[in-house]
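Ops channel
N.P.: pipeline sanity check, posting one input/output pair.
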């Protein structure tokens, strides 16, 4: 007889979120102007969890997000820099603790918290007076008060409601248990 979902100690997840805390901050943080064309990848996330028992698990999470900007409108000069291109990249690594508080045959409910570090790199055009290339390391967090996974014994879909650097509001994905 094959193991049930709760009997499997290891889980690998892949997920995507439409935006993170940095998405919201990028909308309000540019002082002196705004970008005419913006695009972003969303947050792409890979995580591993090891469960010590049916309820508690600990693991790690790796996330990637990228913003690309083109055309900067400068408020002070009242002009548009059409050829201006810039990008921001965020790579996040966190330790994650998860508590599963409801087990059913084909679904479970859980909460999790993650803490770690984020590497933010940004670059603009050469010889730009507007922005310079940079790399900075910041504290990272993820708070997910409610998550649900649903499906079979080894493969499940997941939906999470949370706030942080993996997701803002919703994260969806797939989880494999072994």
């Amino acid at each position: 007889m094959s193991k049930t979902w709760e009997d499997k100690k290891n889980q690998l997840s892949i997920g995507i979120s439409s935006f993170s805390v940095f998405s919201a901050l990028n909308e309000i943080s540019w002082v002196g102007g705004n970008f005419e064309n913006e695009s972003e990848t969303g947050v792409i996330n890979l995580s591993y969890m090891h469960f010590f028992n049916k309820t508690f698990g600990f693991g790690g999470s790796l996330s990637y997000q990228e913003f690309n900007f083109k055309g900067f409108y400068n408020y002070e000069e009242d002009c548009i820099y059409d050829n201006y291109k810039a990008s921001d990249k965020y790579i996040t690594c966190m330790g994650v603790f998860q508590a599963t508080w409801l087990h059913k045959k084909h679904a479970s409910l859980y909460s999790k918290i993650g803490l770690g570090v984020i590497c933010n790199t940004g670059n603009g055009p050469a010889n730009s007076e507007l922005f310079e290339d940079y790399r900075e390391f910041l504290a990272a967090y993820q708070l997910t008060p409610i998550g649900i996974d649903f499906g079979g014994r080894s493969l499940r879909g997941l939906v999470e409601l949370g706030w942080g650097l993996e997701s803002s509001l919703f994260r969806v994905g797939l989880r494999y248990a072994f």
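N.P.: looks fine end to end. The mean pLDDT is 83.
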